[in-house]
Amino acid sequence: MASSIPPPEPMKMAGDIHGNWASFRAEFEDYLLATGLSEKEKPSPAHWSLMMAAMDQSPFSLLSLEEELSCSICLCPFDCPVTIPCGHNFCQDCILASWKDSYSCPQCRTHFPTKPELKKNTVLSTVVETFNLRTTKSEADLGTAEDSQAESQDVIRCDTCMEAEAAQTCLTCMASFCEEHLRPHRENPTFRVHQLSEPVGDLSERICPDHHKLMELFCSQHCRPICSVCLQLVHKGCSFMSPEEQRNLKESDLRGKLAILDEKITKNERDSATNRKKALALEYQQIRDMLAREESEALNAVDCELQSGQTKLKGLSKKFNENVVHMSKAKEDIHSLLSQSQTLAFLQASVNLPKAASFDPYTPQINLDSKKVKAMQAFCADLKEHLTEMFKPPVEDRLLIRKPVNVQLNF
């Protein structure tokens, strides 16, 4: 349904945007309702052009909208803004992430019994896009202006026309000239004795503060630039040369010092690498010595246990041999008794017969796995496991492994 209500004036809209986004939004919504458009529909190009014209006439008004055009959850400009039933707007991803447990408005805390249907706010989305374009353009224009200003400050202009870039500076005239205004110095014999140089920005640095003359000499003894008056009054007996000659000497001296420094740095790096290599080799040698000592102690412990077992074995062997002799004697006595024909003699002899049948000839097993040997075996296993774990990464990555070895021997 068409309406006779005129659209808001562009400048008035721009002022409302600059002053208060809420009032601008309310006025714009009233305008949409009066013209028969709903929030779901995008304004006509004519109406939208009016609003864009207002924004263009007041470019700084968009900057004041940054807070109003930002999502209250992520605090960033809206990305695909959607409107929930209570009227508040959020980024679609932000509101969906906040609705994992319950459905409520993060801003006014209004609770919804079921998950509301999200509808994209087309008007707000377009305003945010326009805001981003305007702010990006403003930042780019500002950066371009700053770069242009910096470049203009670095460029030395001609002192005659004040526009063209200077080609050379005359140290006699104390002025800079472009190619066009430098022609008299190149063509007129009168100016041929003038000293020309590359463009100099601040010529005041070349002026003697005492005599206001050009400092075209350099005193080698006092290491300072001087003018012709300084030479006559103060530096009569001093050796001097032109600043360019002094610079050439200084540059040559600095290059020599630089070469010496490079040589010293290379030598120090080489010596440092050699020393580090020696220190690393010493560390590995100490590790090998420690492992050799541990191996020697472990093997000695096993040898001690073996000798102890052999001593026990000899004792048991002797006892076993004695038992064999006793059992052989008992066997002969039993055979002799069984061959006895006299009953009374048999009974009398059986009373005095040793209890050979109850003798246990079992020899106990000799176990060399004492507590000390077992502890040494456990230590070796732990050490091997730790070293294997340390040596898995490449050498360059082992610098990050700084865990101390926590292996103890408990005998």
Describe the fold and architecture.
The strands form 3 sheets. The protein has a 3-stranded antiparallel β-sheet with strand order 2-1-3. It has a 3-stranded antiparallel β-sheet with strand order 5-4-6, with no helix packed on it. Among the domains are: 10-154, Zinc/RING finger domain, C3HC4 (zinc finger) (Herpes Virus-1, 2-Layer Sandwich); 271-367; 369-411. Helix 8 (243-338) packs antiparallel against helix 10 (371-390). With 411 residues, the protein is mainly alpha-helical. 52% of the residues lie in helices and 6% in strands. Strand 1 (81-83) and strand 2 form a beta hairpin. The longest helix has 96 residues, at 243-338. The model is unreliable at 1-24, 34-42, 54-60 and 407-411 (pLDDT under 50).
Report the count of strand segments: 9
Here the CATH topology of the domain at 10-154 equals Herpes Virus-1
Query: Radius of gyration over alpha carbons?
Result: 53 Å
| N- and C-termini, Cα separation | 100 Å
- Tertiary shape: elongated
Going by CATH, the homologous superfamily of the domain at 10-154 would be Zinc/RING finger domain, C3HC4 (zinc finger)
The helix-and-strand class reads: mainly alpha
Question: What is this structure's SSE topology?
Answer:
Elements: H1 10-19, H2 21-34, H3 45-57, E1 81-83, E2 89-91, H4 92-98, E3 119-120, H5 122-154, E4 168-170, E5 175-177, H6 183-187, E6 196-197, E7 217-219, E8 224-226, H7 228-233, E9 240-241, H8 243-338, H9 343-352, H10 371-390
Antiparallel strand pairs: 1-2, 1-3, 4-5, 4-6, 7-8, 7-9
Helix pairs in contact: 1-2, 1-3, 8-10
